[in-house]
Design goal:
Length: about 180
């Protein structure tokens, strides 16, 4: 069976939106100690670009490792923490940075987890949002793009660990 990647969002389109999100966050967190919590592995590319788009002298970056998918493309709903934060976030203003909110199960779980760490506030920034697949109600405060129910890859997003290194976002078509 052959496969080809059909582009959905170009590198230029993504970069322009990431710049806007960065400016918005820098404005809204001007007087706060903001901590970007990058959810690994999927948000490593988006998070790196977003962090550099946020012009803020007291912005910290930390990482939270999760695993919610097996080799397939359907969410198991089970979120396993594979790597915890390196420092406490108590009293700080946290933004959880996700590649994509699909069913919402992962982010709902991470929001509960984060609240136990007593931050001053927690918001969610997701590059992509797929509202059609929603299973739980979660507020996504900053959304890059709302997309249809397609399994997307690239710009950090994988398909069985492949395609994370693509500079754009696409859909795999098999025929
Ligand atoms: P949720 O728990 O919201 O269903 O899914 C969250 C996680 O599932 C994301 O962080 C991502 O790792 C994975 N995921 C959901 N939809 C997609 C998709 O279309 N493509 C890829 N590559 N991963 C997805």
């Amino acid at each position: 069976m052959s496969e080809r990647v059909v582009p959905l969002l170009s590198a230029e389109t993504i970069a322009a939106r990431v710049r806007e999100l960065g400016q918005q966050i820098a404005d809204e967190y001007r007087d706060k100690n903001v901590v970007l919590v990058l959810v690994l592995k999927g948000s490593f590319v988006f998070g790196a670009d977003l962090a550099r788009a946020i012009d803020h002298p007291r912005c910290r970056v930390d990482f939270l490792g999760t695993r919610s998918y097996g080799e397939g493309t359907d969410s198991s709903g089970v979120v396993q923490i594979t790597q915890d934060l390196s420092r406490p976030v108590e009293g700080e203003d946290v933004i959880i940075v996700e590649d994509i909110v699909d069913t919402g199960l992962t982010i709902a779980h991470l929001l509960e987890l984060m609240k136990t760490r007593r931050p001053a506030s927690v918001k969610v920034c997701a590059l992509l949002h797929k509202p059609a697949r929603k299973k739980v109600e979660v507020q996504v405060d900053y959304v890059g793009f709302t997309i249809e129910d397609r399994f997307v890859i690239g710009y950090g997003l994988d398909w069985a660990e492949r395609f994370r290194n693509l500079p754009f976002i696409g859909v795999v078509e098999r025929g």
